[in-house]
Write a structure and sequence with these properties.
The chain is an all-alpha fold. It has three helices and no strands. Helix content is 91%, strand content 0%.
Length: 106
């Protein structure tokens, strides 16, 4: 009788330990999923911010090129255009060449 009671108590203890281990595993899994969702959202927001910043920079660059083109077409010298637009001299020279090629084809 005492042996059987000991077996039942031992079985109950093992069952309790198994139950607790299973509950812990489920909570850990749920926690990991929540953490992944948070990290994914942070990554998406960071990516969107980077994309926005790149878009703004691209727009600024395009505006500088437009101003440089207009200035060169008005006959403003390359040095002045470089100073005003803060574009590289080489880029302004290439822009001037493309303008000159375009006017030669007319």
């Amino acid at each position: 009788m005492a042996g059987r009671m000991l077996e039942e108590l031992s079985a109950d203890e093992k069952a309790r330990q198994l139950y607790q281990a299973r509950e812990k595993a489920l909570l850990d899994q749920k926690s990991a999923m929540v953490y992944q969702k948070i990290k994914l959202k942070e990554a998406e927001e960071k990516g969107m911010q980077r994309g926005l910043e790149k878009g703004i920079e691209k727009g600024k660059k395009e505006e500088k090129i437009l101003v440089a083109r207009q200035a060169l077409q008005k006959g403003i010298d390359i040095d002045t255009v470089v100073d005003i637009t803060e574009l590289d001299r080489e880029e302004v020279e290439k822009l001037k060449e493309s303008i000159e090629k375009g006017s030669n084809t007319n």
